[in-house]
Amino acid sequence: MVKKGTGPGRLYARAVFTGYKRGQRNQYENTALLKIEGCKNKDDGKFYVGKRAVYVYKCKNKTSVPTGGKSRLRVLWGKVTRIHGNSGCVRAKFSSNLPATAMGKRIRVDQRVDMFCECLHVD
Amino acid sequence: MVETKKPAATKKAEKAPAKPKAEKPKAEKPKADAKAAKPKVAKAVAKDVKAKPVKPKTKLELLRERKPKGTKPKDKTKPKPVKEKKPKQKEPLGKKPLKAGCYRIWKGKKEIIRRKNYIVKPIGGANNGNARRVLQNKRPAYYAAQLNKKYISKRKPKTNFKRLRPSITPGTVCIIVAGVHKGKKVVFLKRLVSGLCLVTGPFKINACPLRRVNQIYLIATATKLDISKVEIPKHINDRYFRRGKTVRSKKEEGDIFGQKTEKYVASEQRKKDQEALDAQLITAIKEREDKKMFFGYLGSYFGLRNRMYPHIMKF
After folding, report:
1. Interchain contact, B206 vs A1, CB within 8 Å
2. What are phi and psi of B216, to 5 degrees?
3. B202, HSE (Cβ side, Cα atoms, 13 Å)
4. Which SUPFAM superfamilies has this protein been placed in (chain B) (predicted)?
5. Residue B237 has pLDDT above 90, yes or no
6. Is B159 on the interface with A (CB under 8 A)?
7. Cα distance from A35 to chain B (closest Cα, Å)?
């Protein structure tokens, strides 16, 4: 039987929002660059393409939550769109652009694939 | 289809080329025609249908069946609301009572009553001309620019719907990635017609009931349970899991948007089915050598830890 005390562990991969897609002097905030933990090359990065990404943050005011009740946690959903570079970084697009304050902060990369995305992980 | 057939039937020689065309749809769908036809004709056709086994007639056969020019054809045309009566030869013509909106025409000695395109209705008002023509068959209110337009859903899932990940096979232990049961390891039973996966805890082990889950929410592990002997009852399908519609009475008092979320209680049927299936699965687990570990495995939660990276992990 499942012990009541222990809940599920972390089910998402940890990632960091490193910055926006950019050239040297121009940046394009609609696409975010994520560095996923443990992801060191293109092949590793390929695993995450299509997976959902979440930016979780806290706010002062409580807002209602889908599961019921109210919470100070807020969320921005997005998905990993493609690989970025050769070292395992990844590009992601969110429902609305990530705020700049999120840079350096945690992004969660879910194991679920975005339903409307072409690549289903082959397994 | 019906409309084109009727005029062709009466005008024998004139529409000889058209008739075979008109007859052909009749030949192909004799039964459908019976439904679409007007009452009297329907009976006639239905009789035929009942009498003999209906074989689609070839064009040639139909042509042969047509009576020669000289004889009076059996009149099959009927205007819509008015029933046609064949006049006796002695009866003076033009004395049949007509309903409103109908007129009569003659084809030789035969009288045909047809419905007028319009009816003249009296209207009031001094300057309105006393009468108006009202169309009996009104023009459609809308003419589509494009007929039979196919609407392509723009937000269509691109993934191949029928494809289930090859790693998910009946008996595979899967990890549920999100939802109420996230982190639990469940046994995949089968894929339902809707495309969703039927999984179960088993309930006794980890409190996950028989449930439908999208394959997106599952990570298949390499662990496979042998469920070849497990019989999944046939009544457990998509309808079984359908959520009941909350019928709201119109006379409900209070706020429509008032919080009326009823807590979900499993029906007796569900509990029975769950127990039955669980028993089967547990016997299947007990046959394994590593059953103790297996029970523990299913009962525990999955979670990523330090240095555990999903892209490297073999589940």
Report:
1. yes
2. -60, -30
3. 23
4. Translation proteins SH3-like domain
5. no
6. yes
7. 13
Question: In B40-163, at which residue ranges do the beta strands (DSSP E only) sit?
Answer: 102-107, 110-115, 118-122, 131-135
Considering only CA atoms, give the Rg of chain A: 16
User: For chain B, what is the mean pLDDT?
Assistant: 73
Tell me how far apart the alpha carbons of residues B303 and A10 are, in angstroms, rounded to a whole number: 5
Spell out the domains of chain A, with CATH numbers in brackets.
Answer: 12-110 (2.40.10.190)
- The pLDDT score that the predictor gives to residue B17 is 46
Nearest to B309 among A1, A38, A112 (CB): A38
Q: What is the pLDDT of residues A29-53, one digit of tens each?
A: 999 999 999 999 999 999 999 999 9
CA-to-CA distance for A120 and B216, rounded, in angstroms?
Answer: 8
* Dist CA B233 CA B57 (whole Å): 46
Inter-chain touch B216–A112, beta carbons under 8 Å = yes
Strand residues in B68-196 grouped as ranges (E): 102-107, 110-115, 118-122, 131-135, 172-176, 185-191
All residues of chain A having their beta carbon less than 8 Å from the beta carbon of residue B206 are: 1-2
Note if the bond before B202 is cis, omega within 30 degrees: yes
Tokens read off for A27: 């940046």
CB contact under 8 A, A8 and B301: yes
Q: Which domains does chain B have, with CATH numbers?
A: 100-136 (no CATH), 161-240+266-315 (2.30.30.770)
Which of B159, B261, B304 is nearest residue A11 as measured by Cβ atoms? B304
Q: How far apart are CA B232 and CA B198, in angstroms?
A: 10
User: For B37-82, how does the pLDDT look when each residue is reduced to its tens digit (9 = 90+)?
Assistant: 444 444 444 444 444 556 666 667 676 666 555 555 555 555 555 5
Closest in A9, A44, A68 to B304, CB measured: A9
